[in-house]
Structures are given as C-alpha cells and as structure tokens.
C-alpha cells in the first residue's frame, strides 16, 4: 500500500528592514504601518498557512559608522505587532523572535503566555542569542556574555520559562490532553529557579495557555545551535536550500533527536526560501534575474562585501573585480549589528572561495554578491514551483518552507492565489484548518504539564 504524500508546512516571513524587498517597486509599502502587517497576515491566513513570522532588531545597524540605509524605517516591537495581529486573524500562528541574551525569563514568559491566551493558542517563540557588545550597549548587560556561553544561557532561559508556564497547578486540577487548558479550580503555584544565570522565585501571574507552552523555534546552524534545537525546539529554521545541502542538514538534526529522547516528528525543519512566478518558466527566470538586480544595487554589493572584508571598500567599482587585499581578521568594526557578519567563521577562507568562484565564472563584485546571497529560490510557473516544493519535501530536505516575498505587503498574494491551489490538488497541503492552535497546524502535541491529565 502506498504511503500518503508528505504534507507541506508553509509559513510567511514579514521581512522588515533588509535588501530582500525591492524598495524601488511602486507597490512596496510601509514596514511599520499596521495595515501592512494586517494585509500580509490575512493573505497568509486565507491561504491556510501555518504561521506568520517576525524577526527582531534590537539596534539599528551601522556601516562605516553610519546608520545602514535599510534601517531608517525603524523596527517596531515584536510583541505589540503580534498581539495586534491576533485581533485581525482567527487561525494563523503568530511567531516572533525574542532574544534570550538581553531579556529576562519572567517577563518573556508573561508576554508569551499572554499572547497565547489572547490568540487562542497561536503563539510561537523563535529563541535567539546575541553575543556582540554593539547590540548589548542598549542593555544593562552590554557585552558581558562571551560567545561560547550564549547557548548555555539560552538553554537555562528557555527551561526557566517552561518552569513558569507549568507552575500553575492545584490539588484537583486536571489538564485537558488536547487543549492543554486547565479545568477546575486552577491557582498559581510557586516557582524557584537558581543557577549561574538566574535566581528568581515567586508566583507566576498568567495561567497555563491553550498550547501549554508556546511553540519553540530555533535558527542556529552551528553544532551548538543544532544540538540546542534537537534538545528543546519544535522547529528549526534552515538556510540550506539546495536539495543536497538540505538533505544533509535534515538528516543531521533529525539524527540528534534520539539522544534527547525525542522522535523525528517532534522537530520540523523549515528552510527559508524566496520565489519568482510567471506564466512560463522562461518568463519566471527573467523575472527572477530582474528581482536580484534590483535587490543588489552596486552600493549594496559594496556594503555587503565590506561585511566580510572588514574594511572600507567604497573606492572599489562594484562592476569590477574583487579586492586583491585580504579581509581584516578579528572583531568586525565596519558592519555593526548585522547577523550576517557572524556567519563568516573564517573570513580569509571565505574570501579565497569567493575569489575562485569569481575567477571561474568571470564575475564582478556585484554579480558575485548576487550569487552568494541568493537563498533557495523556487522559480517557474505555478505548476513548476508546486512540483518542485513537493519533490523537496518528499526527498526529506525539509518539512516545509518559510516564504520570504520580495514585496511587502502584497508579495505573498500571487503565491497564495496560484501555487497553493496546486499544492492542495496534489494532496500535500491543507484545504482547511483542522484545529484552533498552532500546535494543531504543525502536528505537535501539547507538552504535558506536571499534573494528572484527563482522557
């Protein structure tokens, strides 16, 4: 008997400040007005997406001592936006990035527990870390945490919030196994957590939410990040978009789960991806090329190269060859507050690889940056894209995708109207929501509270 096709999970990333958005397009809208967030969320919900995802920016980024061009629009608070979106959606999951380095467990737990109640069980938390002193200057602990300790604090932070979520109990409390909501005369229990990072005690102020705990996402690609996800996360974001790299990443993180007493179904792998659609595959490739040219201007290419080289490269021609000089090793002083800077663990080796690629293909600086910054992109007619996504998931290179459109807020509309119906026809994507919570959408069980359960 043939097995049913693997179901695809879909989510939408509201991209915020970046060069993914084609700002020169007249349809590009505000990244701070609520109408933009509402349009984006409603499109994702009518297409039956699992969730919407917001990133976080704790400091405006700088390049050569100046505020980066793409940060001037500002970055609104994640919790405020998600709470507002809860009022204009009914089913869509609401995921936000919240930093575990510069926040406190009690406050974050209260915020997520409140959001889970307000949304009827749709809250999700992307747990991230930060080690750079530049971001830390906005906080009391600016620069205090060595890089090697950030996941240690993150693990302690996360498990402390779990203690808070689970602290509501009583002698006669019974938790419904499906919803996780406490039945009976629930009351706040005491908590006390003391370790190298936290020393807190008291009573938690928010009852256990519909999901028990918010869904936990993680995005680290290092060995420590993958292990953290395998031990504690419900889903991990991936930047490995090619089929070969995706399968290797997928196999690696799934294989780690057994060490933590977990099964492969308990951790979803969701690659970030872009897309370009048109009536024919040829037209779609032409459109994709035009989009990339508009995303990476000559100035943007030079600024991106500076992040690796750790030098002022403003005198170089973006349509010329890469610099012959090597990157400056050590702390990056050119690009501040940019997550991409941390990705280059060996700048000299990366620069050597880029030079070899540029020489082999005769690429200019701008052409190379366009090539190395491209994510896994699905390009083609709606039918081609739907088939490629299905094949990617069937090949176990991912469990679904985080879509990042090149226009905000309307860039998701075309995908929702043309690709989603074809995925539904293939029987690999839902036609209706089958439950009220984000855990229902993702096929994840409600974590058992430390009390007797019903059913």
Automatic annotation (TrEMBL):
Superkingdom field: Bacteria
InterPro entries: Diverse_substr_monoxygenases, Luciferase-like_dom, Luciferase-like_sf, NTA_MOA
CDD domains according to UniProt: Nitrilotriacetate_monoxgenase (cd01095)
Record domain Luciferase-like: where: 24-395
The UniProt record lists the keyword Mitochondrion: no
Enzymatic class: oxidoreductase
Signal peptide: none
GO molecular function list: monooxygenase activity
Similarity field: Belongs to the NtaA/SnaA/DszA monooxygenase family.
Protein name from the UniProt record: NtaA/DmoA family FMN-dependent monooxygenase
Organism: Polymorphospora lycopeni
Organism placement in taxonomy: Bacteria, Bacillati, Actinomycetota, Actinomycetes, Micromonosporales
